[in-house]
Amino acid sequence: MATKNARSGRTGYRCTECGRTVTKWIGQCPDCGQWGTFEESSLRPATSSGSAGGSPTTPARPIAEVDLDTARAVPTGIGELDRVLGGGIVPGAVVLLAGEPGVGKSTLLLETAHRWAAGGAGGRSLYVTGEESAGQVRLRAERTDSLHPELYLGAESELPAVVEQVEQLRPGLLIVDSVQTVQAGDTEGTPGGVTQVRAVTSALVTLAKERGLPVLLVGHVTKEGAVAGPRSLEHLVDVVLQFEGDRHSTLRMLRGVKNRFGPADEVGCFEQEDDGIAEVPDPSGLFVNDRQSRVPGTAVTVVVEGKRPLLAEVQALVSPTQMNMPRRAVSGLDSARVSMMLAVLDKRGNIRTGDHDVYAATVGGVRVTEPAVDLPTALAVASAKLDVPLRPGTVAVGEVGLAGEIRRVNAVGRRLAEAARLGFEHALVPPDSGPAPEGIRVTEVAELRSALRALRNG
Question: CA-to-CA distance for 324 and 256, rounded, in angstroms?
Fold first, then answer.
């Protein structure tokens, strides 16, 4: 029945996630399983893929003879952004930058447009805004010192107008802020809707590929943190970046979620300042307090964000309570893993916290959830309970199992090399973690009791 309606051009319902068409509205899509994704649309007949007269746009060649010069990454001028992109932005690539409101997406891309125009490698840049007026963007550019003669600014919300701007200016970089505010005139739906977002993105992808024009798109996110719009939006673009940050902290993290031209697990660090976004090429100092002071309840570890080792400090406070239900407060750590560490400390390490309030947090607003932070969390809690500080210059890395064993984690060598570079002299690591880099002494601990003995012996 659905096929018959599609051939006759009648109105039906189409799933915005997978494209399934039905004649009557239903709540759940039988193909992708999503709820509430069917929208009324015209079921147009599909064109035949085997139409006569088709000819290839370019003849196929052996892969070794394909020219690479047109696909080499061009640096944007922002080192942390280039790090996440894999050295720069590839001509013809479409990059989607998503993030919560106010995190600094527009400021980062305005700085990118300025660096691109000032660098001269890709020529002029065009910044198209659909959310603000041109005057408002100009005010931000003055505040962040991002004015340049080769940086052009357009306030457009219609897709044909954006394409015409590209035709006239011939920029080397196009930035659209944001894809949810641009409307394709020949497509049904409201701006920001699923149909409109898909149509606008598809048109911009085609424009980028035809002209070899790199395009940066700003994307909104939902309250769950996912990119707003159809799931196919992330499949259409070449690169998906997530810009993260806490509103109470100046730290911003740029994460690669998808990258067809480079690693998809790199992380760039920025700091939100009054005059714009500043790169933080060595962010470890933001997450570690003065390590010369011996304070109970603190432990330093090395986490890996993507491929980047970063020092982080875990702090714990254990205080007696008269309440029947002791309080557990966690910030920057996985609360479930902290609860597990308290149970393991009680059962395997004879560190009782059942009648104490326990507070655990990280320094600098960084969020750490990987298993390698288990050992420093346990040591920080034990140090606070025993009122015995760890020896200065010591880092701890390792996953703690329910039996109290210390398990190996990945990239121990890179973690210890980063710790040694920053002056740490001693490390507690799991057994068989490999050779230690020069400048740091390693103590292998097979179980939690061994790590606690090292704590007590100072």
Answer: 45
Is 218 a known ligand-binding residue?
no
DSSP code string of 249-274: -SEEEEEEEEESSS-SS-EEEEEEET
d(CA 322, CA 443): 39
106 is in an annotated binding site: yes
Residue 316 · residue 381 · CB < 8 Å:
yes
430 marked among binding-site residues:
no
Residue 293 near residue 343, CB atoms below 8 Å? no
Burial of 456 (0-12, 13-18, 19+ CB in 10 A): exposed
102 is in an annotated binding site: yes
Is 105 annotated as ligand-binding?
A: yes
Do 218 and 256 meet the contact criterion of CB atoms below 8 Å apart? no
What is the DSSP pairing of strand 94-99 with strand 21-22? unpaired
**Position of tokens 């980063």?**
418
Q: What is the pLDDT along the chain (458 residues), one digit of tens a residue?
A: 444 444 445 678 888 776 778 888 888 888 777 788 888 876 554 444 444 456 776 788 898 888 777 788 999 999 999 999 999 999 999 999 999 888 999 999 999 999 999 986 668 999 999 989 999 999 999 999 999 999 999 999 999 999 999 999 999 999 999 898 999 988 877 777 888 888 999 999 999 999 999 999 998 887 766 776 667 788 899 999 999 887 777 889 899 999 999 888 888 999 988 888 999 888 877 777 655 567 899 999 999 987 889 999 999 999 999 888 999 999 999 999 999 999 999 999 999 999 999 999 998 878 898 999 999 999 999 999 999 999 889 999 999 999 999 999 999 999 999 999 989 999 999 999 988 899 899 999 999 999 999 887 76
Residues whose CB is less than 8 angstroms from the CB of residue 347 and which lie 6 or more positions away in sequence, other chains included: 404
> Would you tell me the crossing angle of helices 194-211 and 159-169 to the nearest 10 degrees?
20
Cα dihedral across residues 385, 295, 450, 312: positive or negative? positive
Residue 166 makes CB contacts below 8 A (sequence gap 6+) with: 126, 174, 207, 211, 213
Gap between the Cα atoms of 414 and 135, Å rounded: 47
Cβ contacts of 453 within 8 Å, gap of 6 or more:
none
Tell me the pTM: 0.78
Which pair of tokens denotes residue 250? 């100046």
- Binding residue per annotation — 130? no
Residue 225 annotated as lining a ligand binding site:
no
Q: Is 100 annotated as a binding residue?
A: yes
> At residue 342, what are phi and psi to the nearest 5 degrees?
-65, -40
Helices (H) and strands (E) in the chain, counts: 11, 21
